[in-house]
Specification:
About 0% of the residues lie in helices and about 55% in strands. It contains no helices and 11 strands. A hairpin with a 4-residue loop joins strand 7 and strand 8.
Length: about 120
Amino acid sequence: DVQLQASGGGLVQPGGSLRLSCAASGFTASSYHMNWVRQTPGNERELVATITRRNSTDYADSVKGRFTISRDDAKNTMYLQMTSLRPDDTAVYSCSTYFGGTSYWGQGTKVTVSS
């Protein structure tokens, strides 16, 4: 049974940092592209970062230089290190992947950036 579980969200002040985790089960995360996607309070959805099975990474322009996506294959877990957080980073962050003709999404974790 494929499952993705995001965690690590919370309330942080502007300029602060958080690390999100996405624990994968039921498949080998390193075999597929994995994504972080966020949905803002205004219901805008944005692809934040992608890591490929070859460990190439790609980022939305809005987070380049501030966020880093990574993966620990031994733990079958993906991470999103977020630094220099801004109020407009406030969103629910979810992890996703796609294989076998199906998209899989985990429950999101909420990040609130506010003083």
